[in-house]
């Protein structure tokens, strides 16, 4: 039986996003022993969902597992799932749609590893109990999205001196408010984590437009910024776990 895997991402104009998605698709296909893998976008740029599904179906597959590649269970995810679900009556290929990437313990472990990697790269040998953390998420009008970010922050809280979270846009606390809260704790070292899947415009530019002035005004002496989640092996494993859950 020929099996296919399709990731649905939000969409971005950045080439780095496509490169990361292609890498994840290739690795997931090999590790999960799929015959076909690919990605598509909900919005912004093609290939859109219909094109992504049709391309997979044209490969002569018997089943297609669709993974909404989102960190939050918000409106974007629901729109992606609704669009993908409409294709089942149009094909004999079995379609399975997984849960998004949120609310999984491996994300807490991954963020912890990003923080530790950042400390090591910058020659900081402080124990975790002496390090403060600020996790920056995107922001959403859907209350479930906040819960997904809080889940990660709460999971990190027992490991570090202080852990806070804030949002790039849409909801509060915003980045300035998040930095101000951290400054109130007088950290010796603050690690800021961009909680984003890709190295898109938000990670490259948007976060820094607010973060730079906020850090400067806060007076915090030692602020380090970690990498985004990216193409880490844990993300590939999580894609496959979500896929297998849906297939069962």
Short overview:
This protein is an alpha/beta fold and 248 residues long. It has eight helices and eight strands.
Could you explain the architecture of this structure?
The chain is elongated. With 248 residues, it is of the alpha/beta class. It is 45% helix and 17% strand. Helix 5 (143-156) links the parallel strand 5 (132-137) and strand 6. It folds into two domains: 3-101 and 231-247, 3-Layer(aba) Sandwich (Rossmann fold), CATH 3.40.50; 105-225, Rossmann fold (3-Layer(aba) Sandwich). The mean pLDDT is 96. The two termini are 15 Å apart. It has eight helices and eight strands. A four-stranded parallel beta sheet has the order 2-1-3-4, with helices on both faces. Strands 6-5-7-8 form a four-stranded parallel beta sheet, sandwiched between helices.
CATH class of the largest domain: Alpha Beta
Strand order of the largest sheet: 2-1-3-4
Rg measurement, Å: 19 Å
- The backbone outline, from C-alpha atoms, is elongated
Mean pLDDT: 96
* Count of alpha/pi helices: 8
- Helix and strand content put the structural class at alpha/beta
Identify low-pLDDT runs: none
* Beta-strand fraction estimate: 15-25%
Q: Please give the CATH architecture of the largest domain.
A: 3-Layer(aba) Sandwich
Helix content: 40-55%
Counted up, domains total 2
Order of helices and strands: EHEHEHEHEHEHEHEH
Within the CATH hierarchy, at the fold level, what is the topology of the largest domain? Rossmann fold
Number of strands: 8
| Biggest sheet layout | 4 strands, parallel
Terminal CA distance: 15 Å
